[in-house]
Specification:
Low-confidence stretches: none
Strand content: 35-45%
Helix content: 10-25%
Radius of gyration: 15 Å
Distance between the termini: 40 Å
Mean pLDDT: 95
CATH topology of one domain: Ubiquitin-like (UB roll)
CATH class of one domain: Alpha Beta
Order of helices and strands: EEHEEEEEEH
Amino acid sequence: MIIPDFKKLGGLIPAIVQDYQTLEVLMLAFMNEKAWDLTLSTGKATYYSRSRKSLWVKGETSGNIQQVREIYIDCDNDTVLLKVEQIGGAACHTGYKSCFYRKITDSGIEIMGKPVFDPKEVYR
């Protein structure tokens, strides 16, 4: 088993998250060793919140769980790619399917898609 190199970024590694069927990039998060171990043991994407300084299981509050289907690690062992089944339809805490719903254009920002849920209703 390859173990990610958690030393390079002070105990964290970036985790790129992609829909395993559509290949749409859903989000970027960070993992520490405990989040990595929990992800492997439970099959549910678990991350480390840098702002809250705590672990969080994706979808624990919203119900929008990420069931991990495949895991890839980059050539430097310091970034992982999780291909997930996005249960509930939204990866973004703002209610959108993907955190990357804002497209930069010559005329400004274009919003791509529509929210799947209202965050005011979900995060009370």
